[in-house]
UniProtKB/TrEMBL annotation:
Region of interest: Disordered: 61-82
Comp. bias regions, Low complexity: 68-82
Protein name: DUF2630 family protein
Source superkingdom: Bacteria
Pfam annotation, one family: DUF2630
Length: 82
């Protein structure tokens, strides 16, 4: 479960950075391009974190080792259909 806590901590950090970017952009401290680029990177990393957390939970639920879960590449995670 400590790995899950680490994932939640990382998710919190990424969300805080996202809010900080939006605040800086609103204050005119960073431009549209810089904000957009970093927000896209944050979105991908958040998706990867959430995906890994879901994998770990599924493995635990079905009696498998959650430590066997691994972060998937960005192109895989971003290719999921809603």
């Amino acid at each position: 479960m400590s790995e899950d806590k680490s994932l939640f901590t990382r998710i919190d950090e990424l969300v805080a950075e996202e809010h900080g970017l939006r605040t800086k952009h609103a204050a005119g401290e960073i431009g549209d391009g810089d904000e957009r680029t970093r927000l896209q990177q944050l979105e991908v990393e958040l998706d990867q974190c959430w995906d890994l957390l879901r994998q770990r939970r599924a493995k635990r639920e079905f009696g498998e080792d959650p430590e066997a879960a691994a972060a998937r590449p960005a192109d895989v995670v971003e290719g999921y259909l809603n």
